[in-house]
Amino acid sequence: MIRDQGMLGRGVEGGLIENAYTLRIMNSDEKLRRYRIAVSGLNGIALGKVPDAAVDAASTHSLVVSALVVSARVSPEAGAKGSLPIRFDIEAAENPSLRRQEKAVFIMP
Asked: Mind listing the pLDDT tens digit for each residue in 92-103?
């Protein structure tokens, strides 16, 4: 997982703060897998529009996602300026036992 280094956190419509990330999902199975992606770690954090996370057999797929925080709904400790820890949860849609959790940071301007 790579956070967009060129963007430290920006305001977007609706009073939200956005950080962009690139997730690279590798599928070592012999069949196509679809993945569900979620984010957690801050009150009010949610994913922006997530493209289809389908990865062909024995391949790697990159997709760009945005994590959004509703600033008016963030608790005071979660809304502090700076680098805040979050987690991305990636889970195979057909087999929830195939899951991975990745640590990341959310930059609050």
From this structure: 999 999 999 999
pTM above 0.70, yes or no: yes
Token reading at 56:
């062909």
CA distance 84 to 102: 14
Burial zone of 12 (CB within 10 Å; 0-12 exposed, 13-18 middle, 19+ buried): exposed
β-bridge pairing 45-47 and 59-70: antiparallel
Per-residue pLDDT tens for 7-37?
667 777 777 888 888 888 888 889 999 998 8
Strand, helix or coil for residue 28: coil
What is residue 47's DSSP assignment?
A: E
